[in-house]
Every structure is written in C-alpha cells, then in structure tokens.
Task: structure prediction
Amino acid sequence: MTEERVELILAVLCGLFLVTGFAIEVGTGAPRWVSLGLYATAFVCGGLHPLREAIDALGLGRFEIDVLMLVAAAGAASLDKWAEGALLLFLFSLGHALEHYAMGRARRAIAALADLAPPTAEVRRDGIVTEIPVAGLVPGDMVVVRPNTRIPADGFVRLGTSSVDQAPVTGESVPVDKQPVDDATRAAERPDGIAAAHRVYAGTINGSGALEIQVLRLASDSTLARLVRMVGEAESQKSPTQRFTDRFERIFVPVVLAGVGVLLFAWTVIDEPFGASFYRAMAVLVAASPCALAISTPSAVLSGIARAARGGVLVKGGGPLERLGTLGAMAFDKTGTLTEGKPRLTDVRTEPGVAEGDLLAVAVAVEALSDHPLAAAVARDGRTRLGDGVAVPAADDLRSLTGRGLEARIGGEIVLVGKAALFSEAPGPALPDTLRASVRALEAAGRTTMIVRRGDRYLGVLGLMDTPRAEAAGVIKALRALGIVRLIMISGDNGRVADAVAREVGLDEAWGDLMPEDKVAAIKRLRAEREVAMVGDGVNDAPAMAHATVGIAMGAAGSDVALETADVALMGDELAHLPFVIGLSRSTSRIIRQNLWISLGMVAVLVPATLLGLQLGAAVIFHEGSTLLVVANALRLLAYPAPGARRPADQSISTISEVSKQ
Result:
C-alpha cells in the first residue's frame, strides 16, 4: 500500500472518529469520556503524518506549516475545544492527502512513459528466436518486432519496412515510415549519424509490417529511460518563484509564531479571560499558516513539466519552464531547424581542365567521413551522380574546421572542402577569379556552396539547396501571436542564402556567415535587449544555447548531446512543439500568479477576520479550502491543449492511454 493511500485512509478515519464523537456528544447522554476518547483517536489519526513531517523539519532546523497546525490543534484541546481541534487535523490531513494524491497524479503522468517499454523482447541469437527480459538486451542484439507491438529497445532497422508511431517519445502527430539501413556496420559505429527513416526508439509502436532491428543501447540507457530520468530530475529543480516562496516561508512562519505568542497575552491588555485570548491566538495561527502558498508553485510546475513530457517536450526544471514564458525574442539556426535538414546536391561547377567525376570523387571521399547534413547530402547525391563504375578514393585523417569546412588526406595530399572563407585563411593559392564568379552565381541563386581543393589545385565548387519546412511560416505566425516580438535567423551559411530562407518563412531578419563564437556574440547582443531563446540542433549550437535565456534543441530524441545540453528538448523534429511549449509556459506562469493571489489573499482576509472573532472551525474550512483550490487550479495544466485539430500532444496522450491498456 502506498504512503499516499495510507495518509488518505488515516485522514478518513480521523473524520469518522470526529463525526462519531460529535454525534455522541450532542445527540446522546453518554459520559463525556466516550466522546473525548473518540476525539483523541481522531487526533492520533489526523496528527500522525503531520507530526512525523514536523519532527523531520525541526530536525533540520526549519519551522514548517505542520508545526503550526499541530500547535493550533494542541491549543484547541487545551481549551477543551476537542471537536474544533479534531476538525482542524481532519481537514489539514485530508487536504495534505488529496494534495499528495494530486501531485502523484502528475508524477504518474510522467511514469506512464516508462511503462510504455515492453517487459520482454524476441531476440535472434545464433539463428534461434527466444523471448528474454528487455533488461537482458545488449548492443548488437537482433530483435524481432512483430506488427502492432511495442518496440523494446533503441536501435536501427536491419530488415523489413513499416510505419512506427513515435508519439510517446517524440510527440510526432503521424507515424514515421521506417526502412533498413544501407550499411549496418557504419550505423553501429556512428549511431548519431543514423537518419530518422532507419532509427527506432524503445516504447514506440510498430505498425503493420514486421521489423528486425539491431539494438544500440541497453534498456537503462534508451532515449525513453533517459527522458523519464531527466524529467524526474527536473521535478527537483525549483523555479525562481518557488525559491522565493520558500525563502518567504522560512521568514513568515517564525514571524507568525512570534505574533501568536504576543496574542496569547492579549488578556493582560484587554478585559477578557486568558482562554479567550488563547482561542483567538490559535485561530490566527490557523489563518496565517501558508499551506496554500507552499504548494501553489510546485504543483503548477510539476503539472507543467508532466504535460510537456507527454507532448514530446523535455523541460529541465521549473527555471526553464518559467523563463520560456518571459521570452521576447527567438533566434533560430537554419539547417535542420527552419529547413528540412535534407539538403540536395543541385550544382557541380568544375574548374577548367577538371572532370566532374574527379571533383565528385574527391568530395564524396571526404564528406563520407562527416556526420553533418550537408556532408551526408554530398556523399549520397555525389555517389549517385558518379554511378557504380567510378571508384571513390580512400580518405583519412579527417579534421573538422568548425564553421568553415573539413580537412582530410587522400593519397598523402591535403584536401580542403568548405566555404570561401576557409581558403582565405588556409595556406596555399588564392581562389581563382573563375571560381569566385561561380560561387557568387550559386549563392545568388540561394545555394549553399562548398569549394574543393586537392593539394594546391582547385577542383571546383558544389551547390546545395535545403528547402524550408512546410510548417515553418505557420509556426512563426503562432510565435508572434504568443508575444515573441523579434524572430531572427543566425546561421553559418552565407548571408544571401540565409536572407532567402528568412523571407520565405517570415522572419524579421537573418544574420549569415556566423562562426560559433559569432553566434554567441549575437545571442549576447539580443539578450541585452530582451529575453531570448536559441533554437538549434543542440550540438553545433551548444555555445549559443548556453548563453541564451533558454536553449531549445530540435530533434533531441536522436541526439545524446542535445538531450544533455539544452534547457528544453523537443524530442521530435516538429517545429509545432515550439508554440505549444511556450504557450504552456505562459499558462503555467499565469496559474502560479493566480495561486499566489489565492493563497496570500486568503491569509490577508482570514487573519483580520479571526482577530475580529471568526471561529477556529470556520478558519480551518476556508484555510484548507484554499489549499485544495490552488492544487486543483494547477492540475488544469495537465489538460493543456496543443494547437491544431489533431494535436501532437493529444496524440501522445491517446497513445499512452491505449498502450497502458494493453
């Protein structure tokens, strides 16, 4: 039996003993000790959990709200107001039990993600398929996934084609088609370079086709397992508002106790018996206890984080959740963020005397060693243009020249592939005028350019094009509607290409030709004006993200680095999650403000009311009612909708519900 259930049962028993004792006292002629015994039993049932928590708090040198409630109940009993003292403990313990249940509901919404991974998997070893616990899977195992079953581990497709519902992990609104990888050995060695069409995640749901997947990670290290762990860690990360209320409580509770101590001596100043002064002091003690204040922020933050996780967004704590709601500007990387991230090789311009096949063979050899989307496009499309009959030389000793290009060796010669700026810095001959003209023409047409030089000989330039995401323009409009007043692209690509994409998706401006350190400077400049988020892939953009108010990583389910570096990780590759999580953040902040007004307002009303004669029982009812009200208000966030008729987040919820029933 869970502690939450035990606490609720004790609270109900407290209420039963209270009602029974009151009925006997009022409606029968039974001896007084009978009702007193029932009241005392109610005190034990209702005070057990608060007493334990109070002892723990006092052991740490803190005055918590439980201390105030126990003092008030003991004071009522000392005045022979046993019924009112028992009522106080009943409502307080019931409120706490329901509060813990409500908080547990938000945590269970997160835990439901962990339950999506099946307990067993069918693994093929030595040609024999056997069923083993998922915990027994190791990287390299071949797992058979039957149609309409859950995928047990992170991996990539080796055999079969199917569509996979990834909503529980990424929040994507439609199933994603999956097919086998071309090179299983390369995929196993470089898992971060596996395309979305081949990668699968534990806990997602296979469609109508059978798949055979190769396991990449242990069950404990799967994307789903890490997501659940990180959300659990995020729960303990307090928001700025929560840190403020905690500091306020540490000061407020001793002040209340001191004030109550003063009120105990009111009989020495005004003409009333000590009992009346003591009773009033206990009523004020109840009225001033900040129970609702203590739970107002954490309940909203936990509900917001849980709702985001169910929608495929990992928010790492209350701090990022609140900061999202303060944003006034947003900076985007271009490739893979505002564009599809699937560039195509469209142009091959060779220098005089250079054959197209020679240029492509050298470029493919070098780019095949890199994981960058542009490199993958050159390697893929270049090999296609070369055909099967052309041999590609072996390249090695790859070195990434961040923000500029690549350096490698072929046959002992240094090969450079990158943007024009690389060759103005590298030793060797300057760019020929004919090559400069080709670069300018391609960039004017919106192409990303890559110049290739082998040794001291320039071979030519490649032109690539990446199309903007279909949903990008709509997302930009939605962000403006949410109050993001400045939307900017900061890109390492050339300025003309960045401008063309920015105009197409509706951004205010684009800053191109930026190195990673230039992106950091740009974010600092923007942050000096207003709070700004940096949206990127979480890898190349990690330094800029670290300097932004909030760093947001796209497609984090496929990137270990993105999961670790970003404040907010969009597990899927859908821009539509941006307005969702920002709107959720603003709703969370709004509910926190409402809860603070409710909790502090109730204290402001009840304290003078009790000083003027409001009875202890009425003060208890209003006090505990406000606590339950703020918790119920916070739980509304669990039903926060994502935009659209068939919303990604709602798809995720329905998927969780359906799978949980299996």
Remarks:
- The first strand starts at residue 120 and ends at 125.
- The radius of gyration is 32 Å.
- The chain is about 55% helix and 15% strand.
- Residues 150 and 205 are 4 Å apart (CA to CA).
